[in-house]
Amino acid sequence: MPPPPAARRNRSRRGRARKSPTFHVSVFNCMPEPWKPWERDWAELPADAISCVLHKLRLPELLLGGVAEVCRSWRRAAREEPELWRYINVRWLPKVPPFTHRATLENIMRSALRLSAGQCRSFSGEDLDDRLFMLLAQRAPFLKSLNLKDCYPIFGGGGFANAIKKFPLLEYLTLVNCYCNEEALQLIAKACPCLTHLDVHEIRCHSYRIKGSADNRKAFAIARMHGLRSLKLVDDSLGNQGLAAIIDNCPNLKYLCIHDCWNVSMDGNLTVKCANIIMDYREYFPPSEPCDCVSPMSYGQMSDYDYDDYHDLSLYSYLGDEIDTANLDDYERTLDVKGMRRYLS
Question: Where does the F-box domain lie (predicted)?
Fold first, then answer.
């Protein structure tokens, strides 16, 4: 009996050889491109995201880092947002590579103050002279906090009297190793009526920290700062009479710290006057002041450092009146994610 028709059809299909598929040559012209590493278009980030990243950076990273080399939108965001430049700290910059002939203290100060558009609120500087201090006074009329270290040329010359008059809103003043005399303190008391916090550190050699004759001239000048709320004096020659004058003429004083002031002895009279004042009797040690922007390098390491790995395109983009983008074509669209990871952390 012959098999049914369906069985014959299945048997014939299994026994038939399959033909290889054929494609037209045009199909091979539409093959996908080889896989490429993932890239991010940093230029298309929203303005809020770019601003958030830039606010996490410090001044050396903004001026000497790679912000200006990312793309035009990042450079524009850094240049056109004065909020980024309200707190300017140019201390330790000589120890931040690459500190080249173009990245001098004066150039960085001028660039940062220009970008702040007069909105700088806090400034920290080191080794400033009369010219740089006058530049700060002219470009930062709304300054509220001033921190100076080793700026004795300012107080030795005649430019301090003209510059300090331009800081009527100053509230916080810190002077470390500036050798500020009583005439300068009198000018500060007259020109800065809003001053509420004063720190004066005169760190001398330890062998000279011995008790001697009291010199209350600086103390009498500080007593004219009637709005003081906190006062810190280190290694000063004031005596009991000078300290009593400060307490009597500064009714709002709440915190007093006198380190290494060997001519002061807290007798019964001073103890009564300081009853409502927080006294800090802790032993004073000069701060090591670690660099708050990058890891500090020793001079031996810096001498062997390969500065050819860096270039000052970032600083040049900020110092110039116009942006030179001739060397930034490779950075216009994309940047390696690994290179930007530290900006997003």
Answer: 39-88
Helix (H) or strand (E) holding 257: strand 255-259
Q: Residue with structure tokens 């939108």?
A: 73
Lowest-pLDDT range of 154-168, 200-214, 260-274: 200-214
Burial class (CB in 10 A: 0-12, 13-18, 19+), 75: buried
How many angstroms separate the CA atoms of 212 and 208, rounded? Answer: 10
Residue indicated by tokens 């201390």: 91
In single-letter form, the type of residue at position 5 comes to P
How many angstroms separate the most distant Cα atoms in the chain? 137
Strand partners, 198: 173, 231
- What is the pTM for the complete model shown? 0.69
- pLDDT tens for 164-211 read 999 999 999 999 988 888 999 999 999 999 999 999 998 765 444 556
C-alpha to C-alpha distance for 211 and 105, rounded to whole angstroms: 39
Left, alpha or beta for 127 (phi > 0: left; psi -120 to 50: alpha)?
left
| Helix, strand, or coil (residue 267) | coil
3-state secondary structure of 231: strand
**Residues with Cβ < 8 Å from 288, sequence gap 6 or more?**
none
The per-residue pLDDT for 292 is 41
Counting Cβ atoms within 10 Å, is residue 275 exposed (0-12), middle (13-18) or buried (19+)? exposed
**Rounded Cα gap, residues 106 and 237, in angstroms:** 35
**Quick one: tokens of 166?**
């331009």
Grouping H, G, I as helix, E, B as strand and the rest as coil, residue 240 is helix
Identify the three-state secondary structure at position 172: strand
Interval 57-116: pLDDT, tens: 777 777 766 666 666 777 777 777 778 888 888 887 655 555 555 667 888 888 889 888
Q: How far is CA 247 from CA 130, 165, 238, in A?
A: 33, 26, 13
- Could you give phi then psi for residue 173, rounded to 5 degrees? -135, 125
Angle (nearest 5°) at CA 227 between 181 and 88: 70
Residues forming a β-bridge with 192:
none
| Residue 58 bridge partners (DSSP) | none
Tokens of 263: 């001519």
